[in-house]
């Protein structure tokens, strides 16, 4: 690989040479190019004249530059394709720059670009430098005034951050609007939108009486699908006031939905820009899961106003400062909206599916990375989801009250500043008078820690001893790890499943709670419990109190007991999952595939779930879902995806043989034919669909699936049936797929689902079908949602066919990545990730994956984004 882009290192951080106090921007949006005029009030940070000013700039045409009103002589500046350097500057000056950019041609979707008929921006992390020359780093915070000039017919709505302060018409017929944002902000929070948009409007009065105008803008064909987002926004605003005392701070909160977007959404000050996937919801076209996503992402972006915008990041290594924290706040909010246990199970599933494999692979990095080539590659499950688990651990270790004290101090100290993860930790420590030095290793050490627990019961002394050992596997650049500080929440069950009082050896006799938080800090620790009248079953890591892999040698009976009786919902679910995992791993370990995978303990645990299903259908749905093939793969030193698939299918067949008729009963009792969107209805739908999903792996189910598809009254049911039908190559499947496309050919988000179910199909010829679907008139490589629905879903969600032994899946992915590299590097790099997980595959798969990675690595003109993933992935 030639021309290697350089890594940026955290250790090399330097404070900015100059501050920018105000930014005045003027955009002229013309069909043949956009003219951006910027006027910056700058001053040297040391107050002295003479320091060079280095501005970032990418894909810009510099038209004019002047300092303090005088055109700048060529001798005083240098421009290249990344930057503009200005010399001999006074201590304080006004800098004016005019540039030309081409949003129409911008398929990278960073900076200013066109999505459909509208203009929009994405500036995080480094998009602003594609708009104008600027110190594009988060520790330079300025007050922005933005004027947008455009044709009023095509672009009647012109938006930017803050408050609308002025508007008018030009003699040539164009109109203009001026916006002013009084809060100093980094350039990554700048936003602009121009288009012909419909607006759903509402109001929210804050606790202190500020009347806030809430507006959600969508393209006209999407009107009527924003009620759910608006309700979510209002409940998020009320929640942050109630739980954190945090209020909104501008007179207006705007959200714009765009079709072409690299990520989920963006928290630009006062003007969020959202992927349509994360705003639009309607029972006819959105699944229950989509409704949950909208609620979560609306809340997430709203919460960023305090954790991200009011207090922002000093540099991009600190990304988790705002993302980990905001994901945790989002999780707390979502837990308060419905069943906290079921939400927690979902969070752990996501962490295990996305973050554990990342932490175990070649792209493993700490929550606060030490270096990057392209920061876009670090919007990862580690920074977001493990980062959120780190915040959850502060909450557990300090207690809810201590945590909120820490948050208060954090805002008191740092409102209006760009700070670091160390600053956050210091606020938590100082507010609670705690030493969190060891806890800070969660920010610096990558890898998923392993907790090995052993126990000993002394019947004579009635003493029970838990020995906890921790270790952490090596990760790139980090061979040795120091012990972490983590909360292990636990309880003990007697043989009847009742919680036992926990008399810790050196605590007061009266202090005997039913649950304890053990603080783990060393390589090895012992916890001694007294007055333990019988050998207990330990219930460990309740609520998934730390992001670790827990190892304790449970018997099947013990797991069944925990699954039936534990006081903690997460642990009940987890025990069932571990039992199933244990049996599947045992079957995989045998030379001859066994006739049966499930045993009486698993079957009776599942039978118990079915019998109690009506108490909490949503929980039952989780408990009936077997660990995924990816999760099983993650437990193995060598992964044979076909073998895993066979064993998991065999386990399901055992379940059907034993519990098939009960599953059918549950299915019939819970399937609905309505569009009710309350939690109870959604829970019953989840249960019915899970039961159907199990039954579908048996024989003679075509009619059942066809009926479910035909009778579906909402997208959850319809998509569930379609997905199950699409695994087979028969007329029923073809008819349903055709019907589905016919009905919703004009709804982009539903067409995404149509692509996705086909990408996830277990059909052997799925790679060929995908290649065909890429030629379908509805497919496009320039729309990230389409790419994710077809290519992303296939490579990440269909291990069996992605790893087809002839390597067709790998070739398809590599071909697509090479095309995307020239269109949208961020999306290309992200799609490529599954190919980097070759280390634990069986040798033939490993070779096929490496071959394709090398082919990409040898291609010309690789983007920084793709280069970084390929080169690390090959190591
Ligand atoms: N800050 C956004 C969030 O809420 C993510 C934006 C990242 N965008 C990007 N192109 N890297 O999580
Ligand atoms: Zn975020």
TrEMBL record:
Peptidase M1 alanyl aminopeptidase C-terminal domain mapped to chain residues: 556-874
GO molecular function, one term: metallopeptidase activity
Top enzyme category: hydrolase
Keyword Cell inner membrane recorded: no
InterPro entries xref list: Aminopeptidase_N-like_N (IPR045357), Aminopeptidase_N-like_N_sf (IPR042097), PepN_Ig-like_sf (IPR038438), Peptidase_M1 (IPR001930), Peptidase_M1_dom (IPR014782), Peptidase_M1_pepN (IPR012779), Peptidase_M1_pepN_C (IPR024601), Peptidase_M1_pepN_C_sf (IPR037144)
Swiss-Prot/TrEMBL catalytic activity: Release of an N-terminal amino acid, Xaa-|-Yaa- from a peptide, amide or arylamide. Xaa is preferably Ala, but may be most amino acids including Pro (slow action). When a terminal hydrophobic residue is followed by a prolyl residue, the two may be released as an intact Xaa-Pro dipeptide
Occurrences of domain Peptidase M1 membrane alanine aminopeptidase (ranges): 229-442
Keyword Transferase among UniProt keywords: no
Domain Aminopeptidase N-like N-terminal: 88-189
Coiled-coil positions: none
Cofactor(s) recorded in Swiss-Prot or TrEMBL: Zn(2+)
EC number: 3.4.11.2
Keyword annotations of the record: Aminopeptidase, Hydrolase, Metal-binding, Metalloprotease, Protease, Zinc
Record-level GO BP terms: proteolysis
Protein function: Aminopeptidase N is involved in the degradation of intracellular peptides generated by protein breakdown during normal growth as well as in response to nutrient starvation.
Family statement: Belongs to the peptidase M1 family.
The protein, known as: Aminopeptidase N
Organism: Natronocella acetinitrilica
